[in-house]
Amino acid sequence: MDKTKGSIKEKSGALDQNIDRFRQQIASLKTFVMGGSSTQSSIEEFDLAMEELIAEVLGSSSSMLEAYEYAQLGEAGGLVNISDEAPEGAGLDNEREALRQRLRVLESCVADLEARRAQASAGQRSQSAGGPTVSEFMSRSIRSVPHDATLREAGESLQKWKVGSLLVEGGDDFIGSITETELSREVVANGVDAATTTVKTCMREPLLTIESSESVAAAVQLMKEKATRHVCVTESGKIIGLISVSDILRYYSGVA
User: Coil, helix or strand for 171?
Assistant: First the structure.
């Protein structure tokens, strides 16, 4: 028997088993989401088991493991270390919302494994994280200010457009970004004059970018690593939009 074919078959079989393991846990989690009997201790035990399963199957450095940890916090606390604006849906019941977000993460794990299985059966190495892509949840609305605009003008633009960040224009390109948090820090903490200080002196550069074809999980990983809530989305190197924590929470909350 061809050793390559045997190896692919063995890999596919292991993936089948792991997909079944995740699906069994998804079924259990759905009983919690639907209002089944659960206690704090039973949910904590479930979370511990899920963290161990994700680490075992996808690896301890998997972005899915981090995403599951965020989901446990629910929408109000998701990605708390990098929050600088109120997340969407803050009025929802936090406990039920956190359960739904857990479910979305586990479903993404299954999508990941199914993608690997399809590639393994074709004799290919897995190259994608599977699941939804950035292009499905990004915003194509780009708000920006000139690099020579003052911090006061940038603040007025943030309020006018009700956004948490702005791109900074430099000629025909975007050369950086500035967030509401960064602007407040410069004015309040560092005592700069908002009426005369320009955006260029305080902006974040270079721009953080991610390709529209990348997975939502990859965007979560990038935001965590760079401690930011906003990432520019590109296609063939050209900026076409933005993806934010609010967009990602919309996915994990199951909101279309």
Answer: coil
Residue 206 CB neighbours (<10 A): 9
Quote the DSSP letter at residue 80. Answer: G
Say whether both 65 and 156 belong to one domain. no
What's the chain's length in residues? Answer: 256
20 is written with which tokens?
């079944």
CB atoms within 10 A of CB 134: 25
Residue with tokens 């909101």: 255
Sheet order of strands, 165-170 included: 144-146, 165-170, 173-179
Domain of 160 in residue numbering reads as 135-246
* Gap between the Cα atoms of 59 and 65, Å rounded: 8
Q: Tell me the average pLDDT of the chain.
A: 79
What's 155's domain CATH number? 3.10.580.10
Distance CA 121, CA 63 (A): 24
Tell me the CA distances in angstroms from 142 to 138, 149, 227, 245, one per residue in order: 11, 17, 21, 16
Q: How far is CA 238 from the centre of its chain?
A: 21
- 42-64 pLDDT, tens digit per residue, is 888 999 999 999 999 999 888 88
